[in-house]
Design a protein that fits this description.
heterodimer; A: 105 residues; alpha+beta; 3 strands; B: 109 residues; four-stranded mixed beta sheet; 5 helices; globular
């Protein structure tokens, strides 16, 4: 089963987002080719209205708890309300470059 | 002292603490590096715990505040979030305000 597809499906079902982008950034990291370990999620949804960032991230983490418990290693997360999404014209920051992680020893 | 107790002690005894991979001088992960850099730029001293140097803390930290990923940033005893939230608050100027307030509170206590 493709993890990226699972993440997209779960987030769509849970948040009915006006925008959802899930990017597999694993190739930028210290993992074998074809890995599904590092993801970046940009999601804009009414469900985040009136909620602080920490609360929004908690909601997403809860929906992806199974993935975060072992299948994925990193999740960059940009959670926006529909208004914030349009104000920013859809721009979110790039994820940081890999510095070796736990495997750099 | 078990790992959760040690985490609690770190969180409660410092106005600002980051649990990160590596150290602010030698970060081992891009997310930890960026979060520590944002803290540095706020100009106050902050504490750090290298989770790669303490396997018990590494394993226990996700349970502590029910937050599954690293780094984790705590200000005034409370989880602020991870890298993305810290950077967002830094860019809006809110992070510096929170850190200044937490530091001043400890100094006057």
């Amino acid at each position: 089963m493709n993890i990226q597809t699972d993440i997209e499906r779960k987030l769509r079902e849970a948040f009915d987002p006006v925008h959802l982008e899930v990017v597999n950034e694993s190739a930028n990291h210290n993992v074998p080719p074809g890995s599904e370990s590092h993801f970046k999620v940009t999601i804009a949804s009414q469900a985040f209205e009136g909620e602080r960032l920490v609360g929004r991230h908690r909601k997403v983490n809860a929906v992806l708890s199974e993935e975060l418990a072992g299948r994925i290693h990193a999740l960059a997360l940009h959670t926006l309300t529909p208004d914030e999404w349009f104000e920013r014209a859809g721009r979110v920051p790039d994820s940081p470059p890999c510095l070796g992680g736990s495997k750099a020893g | 002292m078990d790992a959760l107790e040690r985490i609690k002690q770190q969180v409660e005894s410092h106005p600002v603490v980051i649990f990160m991979k590596g150290t602010p001088q030698f970060p081992m992960c891009g997310f930890s590096s960026r979060a520590a850099e944002a803290l540095k730029q706020c100009g106050q001293e902050f504490a750090y715990v290298n989770v790669l140097a303490d396997q018990e803390v590494f394993q226990a930290l996700p349970q502590y505040a029910n937050w599954p990923t690293f780094p984790q940033i705590y200000i005034d005893g409370e989880l602020v979030g991870g890298c993305d939230i810290t950077l967002e608050l830094f860019q809006s100027g809110e992070l510096k305000k929170m850190i200044d307030e937490a530091t001043a509170k400890r100094k006057s206590a």
